[in-house]
User: What shape does this take?
Amino acid sequence: MAVVESVEVTVFTTVTRSVVDGHGHRHPGPPREVQEALFTVTDSDGVTGHCLTQPDTVRETVIRNHIGPALLGQDSLERERLWHRIAHRQRGAQGNLSDRALSTADQALWDLAGRTVGLPVWKLLGGARSEVPAYASTMCGDDIPGGLATPEDYAAFAKDLVSRGYRAIKLHTWMPPMPYGVARDIAACAAVREAVGPDVALMLDSNHWYSRSEALTLGRALDGLGFAWYEEPMEEASVQSYRWLADQLSTPILGPETSWGKHMARAEWVAAGACDILRVGVVGSGGVIPALKAVHLAESFGMECEIHGNGSGALAVIGATTCGHWYERGLLHPHSDYDTAPPHLRSIVDPLTGGNVRMPTAPGLGDDLDHDYIAAHAVASWGTRSQ
Ligand code: LLH
Ligand code: MG
Assistant: This one.
């Protein structure tokens, strides 16, 4: 039996071509240096598992006080048990041990398991499909000339996306701090439908903070435009508001995306009739383990579950299951180049071919990390190891 011998974080500098606005939305920007973190777990056989994350998610106290004590000396392949060991520490951690930190450790353990047995994680998890159609997920609306500043901009970009092979497009329209409301969302959705015709699947992810009446007005417009789903128009903490909305619309409601509560919150949404399509993310909902439980929950109720976000963790769950239709590829923008890997990766995990993304074939999660670049650009590190 191999046991976890060390848990380490390496913070390194890399280059991004995006800026983040005051409400956390990403927009295109000039190249700038940012810091990222590589989380690494190593077992007594010398096998490693990795996951990229934000430095603050796995700051030194999180590793020393929570993740290290939960993992060190434990069988490195007992992922379910280790997930619970970390998750149970969340209650007493006073908010310092996030679902994102839990997810980072969980993904690294899956990466290690895949490398141990020589299988990509999606196959290790069951292996359901080797490719999936991608929907083009746009960045949020902005005020950038030639960007996503007007309904016409969305329409022109949608045509471009269809010419690149996408058969589905999800609009993220204007969100706070942008000042617009429902009328402009409807104009953008109508302009895109007009531009791409009836055969391209369209989805909307809007605002996140509309009132019930605003969300209903927008949803009724989507009913008329034949949208495939309607995502997060309101604060997701109000499950009853989503049930109220779902009861009145023919467009399927998708959720919850950002709610806390992992797979248990998803069960509550299903039981309440608050969504028609379930949603869970690997990064935001606590890892591969709770995401898989949520997908199986949806399947048990004859529902689809669509995985939030891009990346290797999402692909692992999508490749292992059948009850969602799409991979969220993005965020995309007319001024941003999604297909060129950042300097710390040798290639992207999700190239687009004929509108589809193929599951990775390398053992583990499949991220093509450039370890030489990361070592050469390391600016800080911390960790803990067995004595
Ligand atoms: O708010 C944003 O910038 C996006 O909505 C983002 O969170 C995106 O990940 C999303 O919601 N995708 O579905
Ligand atoms: Mg969303």
